[in-house]
Specification:
With 365 residues, the chain is an alpha+beta fold. The chain is 38% helix and 19% strand. The chain has 10 helices and 9 strands. The strands form 2 sheets. It has a 5-stranded antiparallel beta sheet with strand order 7-5-4-8-9. The protein has a 4-stranded antiparallel beta sheet with strand order 2-1-3-6. A hairpin with a 4-residue loop joins strand 4 and strand 5. It is globular and about 90 Å long. The mean pLDDT is 89.
Length: 365
């Protein structure tokens, strides 16, 4: 069987990919591991590699000394009374700035370590460490974040749902084992079951999130406009850098699920619906009361994400969007979920014709 750590031939890589296994790291790295399989990575017998490691270790020792000095400065600042520093708020700002610089030094100490890079490429890095969060954040912003924002702006999710958005967390969505790229049209039978989310945050510590899936393209035949419909709303969901998985099924109905999963659907004849998933961060240490959230939703004729965000002081940190259309499975999905309207077909009204006016024949003489 082909080993994803040591495969080097293209046809073997393709064979692994067909099995759902991706080769690990670059081909050059896999070739090096294949030729020296019994030697640890940091002891590879390449003179240039070992000489470079000596220089990097010396640089790391200097950074570690700077880290110790900065920690002493932080401890000294914490012991100084707030009155001498200009007040409690000034002291907090100064400590936050010093802590940010300390995190920056930790990243500089490990950024050039080839072992760190190897573990990150292998997917075995500890996201509780600043260096792995920094590398993951940089990799996400270089490509995947750009794709997501392109789809969000191209489909006008911003400003239709929210006036502006600056994502700081990566949101990945699955139905079963199928990963859904941003903007893809998903079969209604696939999206009938609740989705699974991966919310990768790049800042340390756990936080509570609210997850909302909203459809802004629900046609209102009486007013000839589109309404918003919430397909899922969950609150008080703990997420951290090392535990990013967020399945929607096992959430507590008593304290977390305000609106249970409603299968995405589109009526026949209507344009595609933009199923937008927003991840909002709650204030530090604040747990939302589920009954208060449900009472707020009862007072609204339709769900409005802007008012919900302002009412509970939430901060949008992530977004994902896929599309749904009427297909051969939509009628069955709607009937199983008890949703009305499967027997209605929407059609655009024909424009009224202008009255016929006979042209003056004199102009043709």
């Amino acid at each position: 069987m082909d080993d994803p750590n040591t495969v080097t031939v293209r046809w073997q890589e393709r064979r692994l990919s067909k099995k759902g296994i991706q080769p690990i790291g670059s081909r050059r790295r896999r070739a090096a591991l294949k030729s020296t399989s019994s030697i640890p990575f940091e002891q590879l017998p390449y003179q240039c590699f070992q000489e470079a490691r000596k220089i990097l270790l010396e640089d790391r020792e200097e950074k570690l000394k700077q880290i110790e000095e900065e920690r002493k400065r932080i401890a000294k600042t914490q012991s100084i009374p707030a009155v001498q520093l200009g007040g409690e708020s000034t002291k907090k700002v100064k400590l936050a700035r010093m802590q940010k610089y300390l995190e920056h030094l930790k990243i500089l100490a490990d950024i050039n370590d080839p072992v760190i890079k190897k573990r990150f490429e292998d997917g075995s890095g500890d996201m509780n460490r600043p260096i792995y969060r920094f590398l993951a954040d940089r990799e996400w912003r270089q490509y995947r974040r750009l794709i997501t924002m392109q789809r969000i702006n191209q489909m006008h999710v911003v400003p239709d749902v929210l006036p502006n958005l600056d994502p700081t967390a990566e949101v990945t969505l699955w139905f079963g084992r199928r990963k859904i790229p941003p903007g893809e049209i998903v079969d209604s039978r696939i999206s009938e079951t609740p989705a699974k989310l991966k919310v990768q945050v790049f800042e340390r510590g756990e936080r509570l999130l609210s997850v909302i899936m909203i459809d802004p393209d629900v046609p209102n035949l009486e007013t000839d406009e589109f309404l918003y419909r919430c397909h899922f709303l969950g609150v008080n969901i703990p997420i951290g850098p090392a535990n990013p998985l967020l399945p929607l099924v096992p959430l507590s109905v008593e304290s977390q699920v305000a609106i249970p999963w409603i299968p995405p659907h589109a009526q026949k004849g209507s344009p595609y619906h933009r199923m937008s998933t927003f991840v909002l961060q709650q204030r530090e240490g604040e747990i939302l009361n589920l009954q208060v959230v449900q009472e707020f939703l009862k007072d609204k004729a339709q769900f409005n994400l802007r008012s919900f965000r302002d009412r509970f002081l939430l901060k949008p940190v992530g977004v994902h969007m896929f599309r749904t259309v009427w297909d051969e499975g939509t009628e069955g999905v709607m009937s199983r979920a008890g949703i009305e309207g499967a027997d209605v077909e929407l059609r655009r009204p024909k424009p009224e014709k202008l009255p016929y006016k006979k042209k003056d024949s004199k102009r043709y003489r």
